[in-house]
Amino acid sequence: xxxxxxxxxxxxxxxxxxxxxxxxxxxxxxxxxxxxxxxxxxxxxxxxxxxxxxxxxxxxxxxxxxxxxxxxxxxxxxxxxxxxxxxxxxxxxxxxxxxxxxxxxxxxxxxxxxxxxxxxxxxxxxxxxxxxxxxxxxxxxxxxxxxxxxxxxxxxxxxxxxxxxxxxxxxxxxxxxxxxxxxxxxxxxxxxxxxxxxxxxxxxxxxxxxxxxxxxxxxxxxxxxxxxxxxxxxxxxxxxxxxxxxxxxxxxxxxxxxxxxxxxxxxxxxxxxxxxxxxxxxxxxxxxxxxxxx
Length: 294
What we know:
By secondary structure, the chain is α/β, with parallel strands linked by helices. The protein has helices at residues 3-19, 21-32, 42-48, 89-94, 120-134, 145-156, 174-185, 189-203, 212-216, 236-245, 264-275; strands spanning 52-58, 61-68, 73-78, 100-105, 139-143, 164-168, 223-228, 249-255, 289-293. Strands 1-2-4-3-5-6-7-8-9 form a 9-stranded mixed beta sheet, with helices on both faces. Strand 5 (139-143), helix 6 and strand 6 form a beta-alpha-beta unit. Helix 2 packs across helix 8 (189-203) and helix 5 packs across helix 6. The protein is globular and about 60 Å long.
């Protein structure tokens, strides 16, 4: 969102908070949960059409899902905020479809899925429904909000946990996202409180409940956490905190790959992790940090 437009929206919401507080709460929360979709190009559709496409419903919204291959090892790919399943093209094209079955889905209000809003609990419900349809994955590979939601999901539903997971550029605390939203729009204290009340009413929790390190502490399977040191969207400290909480995780730090982590080094590390048969546990629980560059 451009700064000027964001400030105009913030002024509008701040005014509403004074003259129509209920409307300000609803509109503000809807904006907080509203991803802005980019137009899908022909090459996106071409990749989507290379899969066996299927869909399912979550709260009256159609969730678009994809399947490639028919191998024994199931891998589930989960994208982040304002993205879609195309982000995994290089990973999916690189994996052997005779030994892997690969699944991906467009999160609610993303890609070819319908809807106008996405929350962590809603994304979680979509993951649960996909697992119910396709079976429990052996490996989960997730990015950004997909990483946060995966950690949240397997904290709450440990029986569905994969054998291992990759969490790329995970956010750490929902309160950080709220503060970023407040700053970008220049929201007044009154307006923000109204939006937080609507958040709690809709999600049944305050933002303070949504803490990736807290959820990660309960995970019993190994993980690979990847974060760029100069990520300007989700600070690297998030992954360091998650790594400290998640026993058996490894932390890989990169330089120069940004939030999207699109580089040959990251691709190779994730593919090696997917295909490795070892459980990736570090015997003494110490941090294992690999710094890589493009």
